[in-house]
Amino acid sequence: MIEPLLLTTVRICTFDGDRLLTGASGFFFARDERLFLVTSRHVLIDTPSGHVPSRVEIEFHADPQNLAASSVLSIPLYRDGTAVWRQGADAGGDIDVAVIELDRSALPPTVPLCCFTPQHLQSSLKDVEVGTSVLVVGFPLGFHDTLHHLPVVRQAVIASSFGMRFQGQGYFLTDARTHRGISGAPVVMRSPSNDTALPWTLLGVHSARLDIGNRDLDLDESLGLNCAWYADILLTLTAGD
């Protein structure tokens, strides 16, 4: 039996035409009859670094009875010169989360999709305490079960007050060992009272490691802290046109 949580998350590869650029993580979010791919916005565009891919590919399972069988879906990032993704902002500035609406008809009807929904979002920020154990599900450095096309999971804890936006930004901190390639991964907390088929609460979207500019690179280790943007931004990004 495969845990449904592992089927929520997919590997993303970014391309400039046919040239492979980077790898990242993403996950499925369903609202009403609509299906979205969620990832970090900087996966889709990061102007300061010159990262401007033209398309992404996601790998998904093609046969629920054979997880070794997979298919790839190519998703153009622009249509008639306009970006197809949605991104958000709030009083603190841009939010490093983006969603792309997927055409369900482009996926085989046998695809074993497991999706987060609005019911999986945390309804009250005050109910999550600092130090709470969470998981980050993704593809660090692209590493995964290449036979069964499944992500891996890293343990983390909430490292800042969840009920208070860190430094006024729309994210909280996690304490976890993370790597490139896990940007866009879901940050989840076990919730037995939630959907029995997917008993997890979606707290955030992992963005990047957080460091300080005055750290002595020779004497001081990395902080090991990470930014995770609050997942409730998905309610805004997936609202009807």
Give a quick set of tags describing it:
6-stranded antiparallel β-barrel, 7-stranded antiparallel beta sheet, mainly beta, Thrombin, subunit H
Tally the beta strands: 15
Alpha-carbon distance between the termini?
A: 38 Å
Oligomeric nature of the chains: single chain
- Side by side, the strands of the main sheet go 5-4-1-2-3-9-8
Give average pLDDT, whole number: 90
Q: CATH class, anyone?
A: Mainly Beta
Enter the CATH topology name: Thrombin, subunit H
Strand content: 35-45%
Question: What is the count of structural domains?
Answer: 1
Query: Uncertain spans, ≥5 residues at pLDDT below 50?
Result: none
The proportion of residues forming helix, as a percent range, comes to: under 10%
Give the class from helix and strand content and strand pairing.
mainly beta
- Strand count, sense and closure of the main sheet? 7 strands, antiparallel
CATH architecture: Beta Barrel
Radius of gyration (CA) equals 17 Å
Shape: globular
Discrete helix count: 2
Give the topology string: H per helix, E per strand.
Answer: EEEHEEEEEEEEEEEEH
